[in-house]
Amino acid sequence: MTTIRAEYPLSERRACGLLEAAVSSCRYAPRRLERDAALTARLSELAREHPRWGYRRLCVLVRREEPANHKRVHRLYREAGLSLRRKKRKRLSRQRPAATAAQAANQEWALDFVTDAMASGRHIRVLSVIDVFTRECLALETDTSMGSLRVLRVLERIIAERGAPARIHSDNGPEFTSRAYLAWAIERQIELAHIRPGKPVENAYIESFNGRLREECLNVSWFRNLFDARRQIAAWRDHYNRQRPHSALDYRTPEQFALAHASAGFCGNEAGQGGSIAAPSPHTPLPAKHGVQHDQACRMII
Q: Could you tell me the pTM of the whole model?
């Protein structure tokens, strides 16, 4: 219609008659553009605040403010050019032993270290501790160096607040295989589950958490000094536990999920455990793969 009227001196009615089109259809202006403008602006604002979040988490934040259909949010998200570019990875199929899934809080904790640097170029280490069942981040201890005794102090502080776990999952780093660490686990009757060397996928929960920590905090933050790093990382931990929707928890926050299961009676009461976990079973021996190392460590301690 616009092209014909630009080339020939025809009225709108005459041009519609030649094209056998209704005049009302030419004058129609979609109303959804006006309605979608505000939502698109809000999505862009949230995407700037959380540059590594996809449309599903942004949709959860939008729904906290107003009702919104997820398909509409996805359409506006793509039209605004906010989609994240992800590189597809080639995955190999491997036979792995079946892992026992946690059924309550404090059944299994996962530990690992993340490394970053400050503005001065000095490296820092962050010890991350999560509850595998509730996905809560129990600690993000930050320092320039961290040995096994410092790790034990962090674990003791968490145990004093919420009770001891039944099992701790970690890699084979020196902090998690030292004699002090093994003796502490024996005294506390905590099962230690170490992954096979070179198999970080066997501790997938902490690896996934560390990926979120690096993308949403470490990569987008500038640490002036150690105190600034501790402040910003602690603020992100509070945001992760209290505000960040978690896809594995039906887009609830870890704090909401933990409170829901605690109130529903899924977390049993245990004397001396603060009443926050299911009653743990007696200490079970370590897997056969680590049995020899465990016995040798015990003899060295004795």
A: 0.69
